[in-house]
Specification:
It is built from two helices and twelve strands; from the N terminus they run E-E-E-E-E-E-H-E-E-H-E-E-E-E. The protein has about 170 residues and is mainly beta. The chain folds into two domains: about 70 residues, SH3 type barrels (Roll), CATH 2.30.30; about 60 residues, SH3 type barrels (Roll).
Length: about 170
């Protein structure tokens, strides 16, 4: 659970924390274990729900009195969470990243980008893509095909795609 908001908002501009006390490291991927119902600072439900299975990216953190973990969700929005192993472990599980296998189904990791930058990509939320292959003369880049339209996209970073688990296919 995120720490309660202070009465006076303050601008955070420095994010020097790379390793969190809970064991997470900036750059790690985590998956929501259960649906997460969002509440406002008074504890009232806002109507927004983050669904089980969403992938979030761990970001570098700021130095705060109450230790918090900074995360970015599938929509590119930043969120904070208590920096303790138990709290993180109840809601999130760490995702091990490996390069997708040829002809496997993948998803685009929207959590890697700020919301305004996401509009520049052709990849839609919730869609599956077929990982065709790495591009031999462009290290760390790949080609994928949209399973709905058949359109092929090439030259995107391989690390922005995560192979779907058996449960997701």
């Amino acid at each position: 659970m995120a720490p309660p908001r202070s009465k006076k908002p303050r601008l955070v501009t420095k994010y020097p924390i790379q390793r969190y006390k809970c064991g997470l490291i900036a750059g790690d991927l985590v998956r929501l274990r259960v649906d997460l119902v969002i509440c406002d600072h008074r504890g009232r439900k806002t109507g927004k729900i983050h669904h089980r299975g969403e992938i979030w990216r761990v970001l570098t953190g700021s130095k705060e009195k109450q230790p918090i973990v900074w995360l970015r969700n599938d929509s590119g929005e930043r969120h904070t969470w208590d920096d303790n192993k138990q709290s993180i472990g109840v809601q999130f599980e760490k995702v091990r990243y490996s390069e997708p296998r040829t002809y496997s189904l993948v998803r685009f990791l929207r959590c890697d980008f700020d919301p305004q930058y996401l509009q520049k990509f052709p990849f839609k939320p919730g869609r599956s893509y077929l990982y065709l292959s790495a591009i031999k003369n462009m290290p760390a880049h790949c080609a994928v095909m949209d399973c709905n339209t058949g359109r092929v996209y090439a030259g995107y970073h391989t690390s922005n795609f995560l192979e779907l688990s058996e449960d997701e296919t």
